[in-house]
Amino acid sequence: MLLSDLNDKQIQAVTETEGYIRVIAGAGSGKTRALATRFAYIVNELGINPANILCVTFTNKAALEMRNRVKKMIGNDYDLSYITTYHGFCVRVLREDIHKVRYPKNFIILDAEDQKAILREIFEELNLDSKNFTFKQILNYIANQKYNLDYIPTLLAGEERGAKNDLEKIFSKYLDKQLRNYALDFDDLVNFTLYIYLNNPDVLKKWQERIHYIQVDEMQDSSEEQYRLVKLLSNQHENLFVVGDPDQTIYEWRGARPEILVHFDEDFKGTQTIIMNQNYRSTPKILTLGNHIIKNNILRVHKDMFTETEGGVDVIHFHARSEFEEGLWIVNEIKRLKKEEKSSYSDVAVLYRANYISRNIEQSLIQAGIPYSIYGGIRFFERKEIKDILSYLRLVETGDNLSFLRVINSPTRGLGKKYIELLKDVAYRQRVSLLEALETHIDRSDLARPGAVEFIKLLRKFRTRKNEVKVSDLVKEILDESGLTDVLRRDGDAERLENITELINSIIIIETTDKEPLTLDRYLQEISLYTDIDLEKEEDNKVKLMTIHIAKGLEFPHVFLCGFNDGVLPNATSIKERGFRAIEEERRLTYVAVTRAENSFYMTESEGFNSRTGVNKMPSRFIFEISENLFVRKGIMKPEILKEAKEQLNIKIDVSGFQERFRVGDWVSHPIWEKGKVMEVNEDRGEYKIEFPKINKVKPITFTFKGLIPEK
Length: 712
Ligand code: ATP
Ligand code: MG
Known about the structure:
The protein has about 700 residues and is α/β, with parallel strands linked by helices. It has 29 helices and 22 strands.
């Protein structure tokens, strides 16, 4: 019964349970399905207890999904906690055996925020500040030091290493604090497990004996250490089953080594390789588009997918003249899908390359009253950095307590809980707001702390500035003068900085497009729609928003890839850092995005000035790599854009390919005269005669004019 819905290759993958086996196959070919079924097969047909099978997935979400799938096949009677991530498994091992390195069982795990807190301490101790290093640089440095296990004996011995420079000093202190707190960061989890295995043959043996079968999904994104771990574990029983798609490697920047999958057979003689190339997920049109995009990668093993499904709707590229139009178009299309195709909101996923892109889409969705949720992320207006700055703005405008409490100590001004309690007390007794209380009594000895005095001075200044400068400039001043920018810079948290830039951009767009000047009061009113809504309604039927990275391995009936502009995807910073390899990885990301779609796929992007790059936004160069006949273009793309794209992106664009030939009777859309009907096609003169109802005239338009698009 387990095998009834599988093809021959999948059946082979499921039933070959012994030895070293790898499955290499493209997106949507049923790898994950085969892997889940194999797990069930080993349990149901071979009688093995799931406690002896390690099944590694890439994310916790994927692990959860896998457990549910497996449960359906084997029932509820088993403990499936070995269906997990590398990190999840390592935590299990360490809780049991970390005493081998004299750490207690209840060691703590540091997340990124904890790591920064430690760095803050170290900066103080060493008298360093953000001018020396950003936290991001240091965290990168630490991660690099942890690419091998050499640091572990030093950490465990609690020795000061002879540090030659500041970075080494910081690292040494970081390790020291780790030991004092019995703390491990994420990289340590795998490294410590490996270290303990390598230095304690008895422990290794125990685990090797326990784990009879190992299965790894998304192998192409495993790191060298993760691979070493499963290799070691499989030594005893020699059953290791790995599946992956090198074309979907999207974590090379964080140490993924797709070569491992490609050269797996050299590491294990006698490896069986199973190739699957039938796609069950997508319509032929979507699949062809995916194949077409990934073909442009140079570093890859050629493979094409095919499908037996037929038909399907066209892939659509929508080029919008503004981000507002882009959001609106997506929303309208979602509404249409719901109405005409009877899709539900939860059938729709909106994907993007960078978190800040969600802002525009969220606003459009909220305006249209469409419920949505963000997978693995926080809604734009809920993000800390955005809330902070908006609270400052509100405090300047209204002086309310909520905003006051949010920003009085952000960034820290040394005004702790006690101080705030005292202030609350004063305000309560005098029936005034916290801000008023502080302003009135700022000279009182118990209230006149330097941080508070400074804060009041700042606010007074902002209140004056609010009447003198534009809202966008006020935001910049608040950021700089309150110290928020410094905090963000020191953290080197690119995402937060991007979100802030995105917020400022969105204000500038209002300021430059609205006829009446934007006041702070009106701005706050406008966005209250986005900040005050009752956020998580208990409702499953929601549009799903997420980054492409999060979407890995998942599938959705309808997929929008939005913000598909050059510099976003491919990402300009990645290209700057890693050049050609980054472009290839960005192309794989695009491939991952396309191949998430089952029935329809849309790519959208918009024009406008990009203050990040200082030039006009352009469609992604990847759009120009795709043959025009593989998708339908909507929206009006002016010829200048094509020309500029050609120059800016320095890519070969076959401009003629963009020109569609119309026939008599076709309706077209013209950038100025809007709808028109083709009355005549004159091949000799190379022009159409088009009648435009708007001006009630027939105009000759040359074939080479790029502003005409089909009107549906
Ligand atoms: P990805 O590379 O994106 O992770 P995958 O190779 O893991 O994709 P799956 O998610 O396992 O692919 O399968 C894709 C879709 O095809 C799923 O909806 C799955 O149920 C379906 N599918 C897989 N195999 C078959 C089959 N033999 N017959 C019908 N449908 C199948
Ligand atoms: Mg999969």
